[in-house]
Amino acid sequence: MNANIVTKLLGFTAALGLAASAPNVLAQGAAQEANPLGLPDQPTLLADPNPNVRKATAVVNGHVITGTDLDRRVALLLNANQAEISDEELQRVRAQVLRNLIDETLQIQAAEAEEIVISDAEVDQTFARVAAQNNQRVEDMEAYLAQVGSSSASLKRQIRGELAWQRLLRQKVAFFVNVSAEEVNEMMERLEASKGTDEYWLWEIFLSSTPENEAAVEANAAKIVEQLRQGASFAAYARQFSEASTAAVGGDLDWISLAQLGDPQLESVVSQMQAGQLVGPITIPGGYWIVYLRDKRQILMADPRDALLSLKQIQIAFDPAAPIEQNQAKLQGFTAGLESLKGCGSVDEMAAALGANVVTNDQIRARALPEQLQQIILDLQVGETTPPFGSVEEGVRVLMLCGRDDPETTSGPDFEELMAQIEDERINKAAQRYLRDLRNDAYIEYN
User: Fold this and answer.
1) Within a domain: residue 214?
2) DSSP assignment of 273-311, as one string?
3) Which of 34, 109, 285, 406 holds its CA 20 to 30 A away from the CA of 230?
4) DSSP character for 385?
């Protein structure tokens, strides 16, 4: 199992834990040399310390969260990152994961107070489904979690918490959320009116701030952006740090129009972004916003990148050990041969004459090609080729377009889908308020 699998796991779960940093040996040596307290070099302990006993990190309404619980929750987050994090960043991550553990405990306790019980069988079934989605047996998943410093028990605890919270929201919140047919019809009319305009698939992280802690929150947001640029999992950081309602789904805002952002400043920022771009932190009312543009398309319009293509790939290999002049002559002969092509039917004959290889690829979706080639291919007519690309080491190739089936115009979300979207948004906002109330009423002790 690799980091990509861990990232998928974080779609349902959060991160588990790794042990804290080792003590500073140099600092220890200096302290022993000074020995200001006059302590013996080898003190005789009157009781054997038990390494298996951990002091509680927090006690939430009587439930103990230990250091081991925290360590195991941090481990998956660290393993999902593609880059090393500093000791300072590690401490910040641990503090956030502890807050998540506290919230999870409050959610489970609130569900139990409403006599909502999540059975072990339900948790095991979900755990098995997560393993299956990652092409793993349950035993392999358990072994992997132990390998990265976590455990199946810790992961199952979070699964139990999420299942309990979802069921509690359905019982206490969703039941009271109503969306009228008029609201849905009005939304559908607005979508139709905006047909052809751009919409954006955004991921977000929101950090709230007050005038008193504004500088600290901004610094924290900047560190998150730095980690994301170095390869950290956006979904994992959104789940652990974001205070937006989208935190539970890794910050995924799904497809939205600029008008739905409700802020001219944000509309201006997003409208200028390119797919794959990360921007932030941006100052907005109440805090800071980090945004990642996953993709862009036009509302109620077919996306050309969904076109199915029939391509012929023509490639010629070189001998890296041959003289430069020889390889240059071979390349010139290849490009000259390409100019003489008379459509896809002549490719095989030309390739045989030049010693090139031909690979036919049918039913290739344009968006599956490298981004640099997508628009080039989409601008071609049948029988035309891309410019040559590659190198002496990897070979030089071209792609010829031999067929194209354009996608049908999308009809957009139907009435039921729009109603579900509006309901989900309102339930998420109500869930945030509900959790704030649970925090305000909780008895929490820290060690």
Assistant:
1) yes
2) --TT-EEEEEEETTEEEEEEEEEEEETTS--GGG-EEEE
3) 285
4) B
Q: How many CB atoms lie within 10 A of CB 380?
A: 16
Output the CA–CA distances (angstroms, integers) from residue 244 to 239, 250, 253, in the order listed. 9, 10, 10
Domain assignment of residue 346, yes or no: yes
Looking at 274, 298, 322, which one is the last position of a domain? 298
Q: Which domain holds residue 309?
A: 304-405
Alpha-carbon distance of 315 to 326, in angstroms, equals 17
The tokens for 303 are 């996306």
Is 438 in contact with 105 (CB distance < 8 Å)?
no
Domain boundary among 156, 172, 188: 172
Residues 61 and 134 in one domain: yes
Q: How many domains in the chain?
A: 3
Which pLDDT tens digits describe the chain residue by residue (447 residues)? 444 433 334 444 433 322 222 233 223 333 333 444 555 655 655 555 554 444 567 888 888 888 888 888 888 777 766 556 777 778 877 887 888 888 889 999 999 998 998 899 999 999 898 888 777 888 888 888 888 888 888 888 888 888 898 888 888 887 777 788 887 887 777 777 666 677 888 899 988 888 888 888 888 888 888 888 888 888 888 887 888 878 777 888 888 877 777 678 888 888 888 888 898 888 888 888 899 998 887 766 566 677 788 888 888 888 888 888 888 888 888 888 778 777 787 788 888 887 888 888 888 887 777 777 777 878 888 888 888 888 878 888 888 888 877 776 655 666 777 787 777 778 777 887 888 888 888 888 887
* DSSP bridge partners of 284: 287
Beta strands in 79-208 (DSSP E): 198-208
- 330 and 371 share one domain: yes
128 and 10 in one domain?
yes
User: How distant, in Å, are the alpha carbons of 21, 190, 202, 294 from that of 183?
Assistant: 53, 11, 24, 28
Exposure of 324 in the CB half-sphere (CA atoms within 13 A):
0
344 touches 314 (CB < 8 A)? no
